[in-house]
Write a structure and sequence with these properties.
By secondary structure, this protein is mainly β. The protein has a domain of about 90 residues. About 0% of the residues lie in helices and about 60% in strands. The chain has no helices and 24 strands. A hairpin with an 8-residue loop joins strand 21 and strand 22. The chain is elongated and about 70 Å long. The N and C termini lie far apart (about 55 Å). The N terminus and C terminus are likely disordered.
Amino acid sequence: MVLAVAVPVAEAAQERGRTTPQTDRTITVTKGARLSVTNDAGEVVLRTWDRDSIRVHATHNSRVTIDIQATGNIVTVRGRASGGPTGGIDYEITAPVWLPVKVSGQFIYIGIEGVQNEVSAETVRGDIVVKGGSGFVTARSIQGEVIVEDAKGRINVSTVNEGIRITGASGEVSADSTNGDIVLSKVDARSLEVTTVNGDVRYEGTIGSSGQYRFSTHNGDITMILPEATNATFTVRTYNGDFSSNLPTKTVGDVRRGRRATYTLGSGGAEVELESFGGTVRLRRPGTVPAPRGDKSKQDQ
């Protein structure tokens, strides 16, 4: 439930001699509230603090009014313009760590950090960076890179024309891209589905002995970096590529190009499906694979 709405503390910056108007408002909230931010263009950067209040700082043009409404347990933030579109609005929002957050827009960058509850971030054109999130974590862009770090729960990430990077995630993970690489590192997933059409897939982390995992790419390689103590059964299919492993995997049955081949590691508990039409599938020990393309940090030796 929302308790109160505070009076704007900085607005109509033209009166202060500035060329860019700004809005600065704070509202008080209680547990059970949710935040929804809509922005057509610009950026939304949200961080957290230990106060039970939401501060909204926005930079916008002179025709725009920032509308903050508290209806029931929903706090909505959006820009409204007189006589035309709002143009670009840049938000800097500070919210309680416990507050569920939804941010959506058309042409916006979204950055969300520190939320310990549900997170939803969706844009048509723009990058998304989510650090944190718990429960349901969704990050979707059509034309933009998507980065998710340290999220827990059901994690759903997608983009069409850029790559995906997921680090430090745990739970049930789904990642989908059409034209981009997908890189997952330090992941502890109970189940996982990763799909791209034109891109490489790289997974580094652990897999549960009773989990189910699926990796698929049409034009790209698949690389899994796993501890030797992993227990998994790998079902592998590649048409114009090869399979290689420096883990102590065992072949089950015949291996024929274009057919599914089966390999086991340890007791073979987890079910792992790996499929690439035009790329190579690799299973590797930690420390035996170069860092991903675009990673300027020191490569593994």
